[in-house]
Structure formats: C-alpha cells, structure tokens
Amino acid sequence: MDNNEAAVKALELYKVNAKLCDPHPSKKGTASTYQESSAHSNSACSNKKMNHKDIHSVRDNFKDVNYLTEEKVYEILDTCGEKEDYSPLIRVIGRVFSSAEGLVQSFRRSKPHTKEELKSLQGKDEDKDEDEKEAAASSTTAMEEDSPTSSSSSRLGECSSGENDVQKLAPDEVSVDIEAVRRVYERLLSNDKIEAAFLNALVYLSPNVECDLTYHNVYSRDPNYLNLFVIVMENSNLHSPEYLEIALPQFCKAMSKLPLAAQAKLARLWSHYSAEQIRRMVETFQQLITYKVISNEFNSRNLVNDDDAVVAATKCLKIVYYANVLGGDLDMEHNEEEDEEPIPESSDLTLQELLGEERRNKKGPRVDPLETELGIRTSDCRRPLIPFEEFVNEPLNEVLEMDKDYTFFKVETENKFSFMTCPFILNAVTKNLGLYYDNRIRMYSERRITVLYSLVQGQQLNPYLRLKVRRDHIIDDALVRLEMIAMENPADLKKQLYVEFEGEQGVDEGGVSKEFFQLVVEEIFNPDIGMFTYDEHTKLFWFNPSSFENEGQYTLIGIVLGLAIYNNCILDVHFPMVVYRKLMGKKGTFRDLADANPVLYQSLKELLEYEGSVEEDMMITFQISHTDLFGNALMYDLRENGDKIPVTNENRKVKNMSLFWKTKNMQRLKQFSLTSLIVNLFKRSTLVCASTGYVLELNSYIFDEAVSSCLCRREFWETLHSFGEEQKRLFLQFTTGTDRALNDSLKLPTSHTCFNVLLLPEYNSKEKLRERLLKAITYAKGFGML
C-alpha cells in the first residue's frame, strides 16, 4: 500500500483504542508533511486542516455503513472518484455483500415515514451530522432500525418487520428496488477492482446463506431474506470465468436450499423480466453446468448426478424455466374435464404388490412440486419467453448415465438426484432412452408375473405378446388380434411384442416389429382407406369426418400407436398441434385452427375482424358443409337449427371456440393414450419431432486405419454421399428395419435390422457397388435367414 493507504489504516487502528475529540491527521504518518506545510500561509494551512477533517468524517461514515442504498453508493463512489482511491468503496461492498443481514436490508424500495418513526430516528441519531440524518430518513424502517449490536437480536427484529412488509406485497413482488440494483451494478462493474470485491464477498456469503436455509429455517421467519438472491442474480458478470470456479457453485447450492414457497415467489418475480434477462440467467446456469461437465471426467463410476454444483445449477435453472413458462403466452382455461367416475383398480397383482411394495403414481404422471405450487402446467404455455430448446444442455446429455439416472428417478431417494425430474435439460435422444428403460422394465415385470402365475395357478406360459400376420392382410390380421387381446386380457398389451410374418423366416429381435408398425401405419393412414384425410398444403393428417369406421376401429389405431411407442418404434405420422394438445389434456381452441386448417382459420379471423355489417354483406348462417368419401356435400349445424340463424356482428364471436373441435372424430382422440412417463418427459414440440422422423447424418462414422485402408469401404461412403435425399432415406430404411433385401445370387447388400448392422460384400468396382446398393434399398422386402 502507498503512504495514503498506510495513513488511513493507522487511523483506523488508532481509533479502535481511543475516540478522537477532534479528527486531526496523525503525526505518526504525516510528520514530514506537516513540516513542509508550515511554510505556507495561515489561511492555506487552515483550509488544508478543514479538508482533512472532512475526509476523515466521510471515512468514519463509510465505516458505519452496514447496508446500501442507491444514493449511498453514488455518494461513496463520487467521494472515491475525487480522491482516486476506491478502497473505501471496496471495503463497504465487501462488508455489505458478504453479510446476509446487510444485503437483505439493502436497496429497499422507499416508503413514506410516520411522525413517530421520524421522532425515533431523531432520538437515535442525535450525534450524527445533518447529512446522515437525511439519508436515514429516506430509507426504509427496517434499515433505520439496524444497529451494530448483537446480530441475533437484530435478526429477530428484522423478522417481525420483514413479515409485515411481505404481507403488503403481491405474490410476485419483493421489497427490493430492482431497477436501482441494476443501475448500481451498471456503474460499478466497469471497475475491475470493485468487481473483485463482489466476487470475494459472494464466496464468503454463500456458505453462510446455505447454512441459514438448511438449519435455521430463516425464510419462514423473514421472507425478505429472498432479497439477497434477487440482488445477487442481477449481477450481469456471474457467468464470467472468475465466478465459475468457486463463487457461483456455492451460490447455486445456497439457492437450491430455498423452500418451495420461496422458489415459487422467485419464479413469479422473474416471469415479469424481459426475454433478454431470462436468457442471461439461463446462460449463467448453463455456463456453470457446461464448465463442470467439461472440466471433470464423468463415467459410470463417477456419475454427474453426484456433482453438487451441476445438481444445484440444474435446480436453479428449473426456477428460471418456470419463470419462462409463466412469462409466456399461457392458456390455462381450456383443460379437459376430469373423469367423474374413478378408474377401478385392476384385480391382478403387480410385481410391486407381490414384492410387498405399494403402487406409486396411481393418479397419473408425477407432477413437479414447484409446478403444483405455481398452479400451472408446462402444457399451458403456448409460447414461452425464450424457446425451450435453450434449456437443453448437450454436454450434460453426453455424460449422463441414463440407466443410473432412471433408477434414481424411480427409487426417489433424497440423497440421489435424477435429471429426469428436470426433463427440460434433456434432449429427445436422452428422453427416448429413459422411455426405453421404463418400457423394458414394464415388459420384464409382466414376464415375471406371467412365469409366477404359470407356476402357482398352472396357467400356460406366454411371456410375450405374439402377433402372427400375413403381409397381404396385415391390417385385418393385426387389428382383429389386438381387439381380441384388448377384450380378453388387456394386461397382455404390456408384454414385449413379438411379430412373425407368415411364410418368412425372420426372428424378431426388434427389426421385424419395426417393419410391422411401418406397414400398418402406411396402410391405416392411406387416404384411400378413408379413416384419415391428408392435406397437401400443411402435409398433415386429420380424422375423416365422413369415415364409415366405428369408434372401435379408432380405438385399435390408438392401441397400435401406443404399442409402437411402448416398443420403441418411431413412426412417421404427422398430426396438427391440436392432437398433441389433446393428448396432453388440453382442449382444442380457435387458435389451433392456424396449423390444422390455415384457410379456415384465416376466413374465420377475417369474419371476426370485419367492421361492416356481417349479416347484410356476407349472408351466412351457423351451418357448414363438407364432402364425404364420394364427393357428396354434407351439411352440419354448429348450433341447433343453425341453418336458420344468421351470423351477425353480435353473435359472430363464440365464447367457447372449441366448438369447432367437438365433432365425433375429435372425440376419437380419447382412444389415443400415452404412458405417464411420456407425459412427464416429453412436451408437445418433442412429441411432434419424434413423430415426424429424422434424417441421420451419414458422415458421422470414424474408422481405424485397417478399415479406412479398404478400398471398398471408402468407395461405399463416396457412393453413399453421392445419393440424393430420397435415396439416402431409402438406405436408412433399409439398414434400420423398414425395408429388407434378400441374399440372392447377385450378392446384394443385406442388413440385420434388429441390431442396425449393414452387411456389405466386396465389389470389384465402384459402379457395381452403386448398382447393387441402389437395387437393394429400392426393391427390398421381406425377411430371410442368413
């Protein structure tokens, strides 16, 4: 330190032992200075003494600052700027931002004081100068009552006053002046030395806060304790490298200890933030998660689930996620009615009951406690503040051991965290893997129960759901068989599917089932069958309003789609978004027409916005028309006697626009069902992505030197990259199970679709390889034994 700093330090140490009657420069630190200054005039010497007195008076006031206001920060900043010495400000920031009590009281929103409060302030501050009295009078009651006495008694006083303040606040409000905090950060963070003070103070503050929340239940006694989290999160430099090592992980651990009510209040508060502010907080927590994942070597022995920093950051990210949902475009009114009659419990014993365990989640999918506290569902959000994709952390998905994580999810132990409880951070591939484990465990459970029943009750052993179908009559054979199973023993649908094509030798290890579902879906959704219509403009399927099929046929279709998901088969089925909303428990509304029928939506929108006389200019009624399978026009009344009711400016706006979806075909959606884990893991957008299929990147393979040295292999990849998009798609279908090739005398390429393995013979030229490969993927059909 320089001479000036040494002098300040000496004065501070000196005042600890004795209070100076008249603040005056110490002779120890400035003896030579006073000798030199004796040569000046008496007036100059007098002015210099007064300046020293003012400086020490200000420094004394800074030492007594235990909380901050915007005005106080600017006062200290201006004083330090004049002397070009920011050490007093650094010490004040370190003292306040490292103290939970001081930070909770800082930057409170000002409110008018009563006469009694002003009198008490005057009594307490008799020995203080006039400026400090005015500063104290402009602050809040809780700030004014602070004193440097016992911290325990001070905290108890803060609790009582804090509770009174919070009772006057709305559920999405806090007593801190957020705009003032932002202005202060904007001015201070440009100075590197001052920023280091924030960093060091946060390192000291976080463990104490974590202890307070874990053991002292401080939030229930003082809800204003939430202020410190609001203030710290406004620091726009939290994602910088300096914070990632110690400060931010410790702070995330402290925030993750907040009780449920405090987390909900934070989510409601942050829901009023702009998209840019939400994105900044998301990037802060994502930066920490990515940093910890990359800087550590996670594997099956060193699980990422055991990293406290990653887990804490994920929990904090969940608060921001629900703030993003709350702040978006919500539709909380159009929910499906709950079933009036309770679903009867099955009389069959499950594996859990046989093992003495109670059945869990009887009422449906697991619901996040924070979601319940906020009174919302993620499916209520049509458009969030920022896209849900920004919450996915790809590095975390790469190191996550999904089998272990799924175990933690099902066991629900307190000491093991499962990322499946925060599905927003997982990508579709990881979620699909979790769904695979869930389905397989269900299959194994049904298999064990079947074996147990066969031993105890003498039943015939049938551990699989076996379907034997003819390729030329696949719809008739499959739907009739599934209908019989659904009527006789619906529990068999939970068994692993085993498909056999009559007259073919293929053994179903997964590949035969893939082709079965692909063929069934192609047949069912063929417009010539008449069950569904296809819109060439939107490329979407919809229920045919003129179909002659009964409800049972649509029930069987729902069973087929459910079996496909249950057996891990992705289907190329395209529905409007309203179908997925229906599956997630939401009703169809007028807004859903935008993607289901854009022409109708635009026409109705123009009708609603028409400013002239609808009755005289348009002359329409509450009756619509559509065509049947034979092209005949059919009329449908939207209201009783709708053909006689003209549409006017007064009655054109229907309060419940879900009327457009209340047709017999929309009711058939009730036959489509999803497992509870799908509802818990997947959102509507993810379901759409999963249903529309995907194009696999073909250049993502890495070969060792032995393989890359083979001319045939290199030519194979060169040939594959020369294919068009349709030919590449056929190749993927060929190698993964949709189409098959026989091993004939021409030595065509073949594949084990159950294991996604391509068998490629060696050819003497690239042209021959191309010709054989194109023939294999174009004319492949059927199964055979190699």
UniProtKB/TrEMBL annotation:
Tell me which EC number(s) this protein carries. Answer: 2.3.2.26
Q: Name one GO molecular function term.
A: ubiquitin protein ligase activity
- Write down the InterPro entries for this protein, in alphabetical order: E3A/B/C-like (IPR044611), HECT_dom (IPR000569), Hect_E3_ubiquitin_ligase (IPR035983)
Where along the chain is composition biased (Low complexity)?
150-161
User: What reaction does this enzyme carry out catalytically?
Assistant: S-ubiquitinyl-[E2 ubiquitin-conjugating enzyme]-L-cysteine + [acceptor protein]-L-lysine = [E2 ubiquitin-conjugating enzyme]-L-cysteine + N(6)-ubiquitinyl-[acceptor protein]-L-lysine
- Pfam families annotated for this entry? HECT (PF00632)
Q: HECT domain: from which residue to which, for each copy?
A: 489-786
The scientific name of the source species is: Neolamprologus brichardi
Task: Give the record's keywords alphabetically.
Answer: Transferase, Ubl conjugation pathway
**What CDD domains does this protein's entry cite?**
HECTc
Q: Where is the composition biased (Polar residues)?
A: 29-47
**Disordered: where is this region?**
22-47, 108-165
- UniProt lists compositionally biased (Basic and acidic residues) regions at 113-126
Biological process GO annotation list? protein polyubiquitination
Domain of life according to the entry: Eukaryota
| PROSITE patterns linked | HECT (PS50237)
Against SMART domains, the record matches this protein to: HECTc
Provide the active-site residues from the annotation.
C754
Protein name per its UniProtKB record = HECT-type E3 ubiquitin transferase
